[in-house]
Write a structure and sequence with these properties.
The protein has one helix at residues 2-27. With 61 residues, it is mostly helical. The longest helix has 26 residues, at 2-27. The N and C termini lie far apart (65 Å). Residues 32-61 are annotated as: Disordered.
Length: 61
């Protein structure tokens, strides 16, 4: 029963946030509408993750 109440409250909060963002974007039509965070294309990290950035392999060993 408590889980159902939490679910309803979470749904109402999400719906309120969604409506608020919708009206915010609608009022700021000069700016491009902001996409929700999960719709952004996933960029891989620009730095190589396997290699240590320092020191380079040939230096001072």
């Amino acid at each position: 029963m408590v889980f159902l109440l939490v679910l309803v409250v979470a749904f109402l909060v999400l719906a309120g946030v969604g409506v608020g963002v919708y009206f915010l974007v609608k009022s700021n039509t000069k700016q491009p509408p902001a996409l929700p965070h999960h719709q952004y294309p996933q960029q891989p990290p620009q730095y190589p993750s396997q290699q240590q950035p320092y020191p380079p392999q040939g230096w001072g060993n």
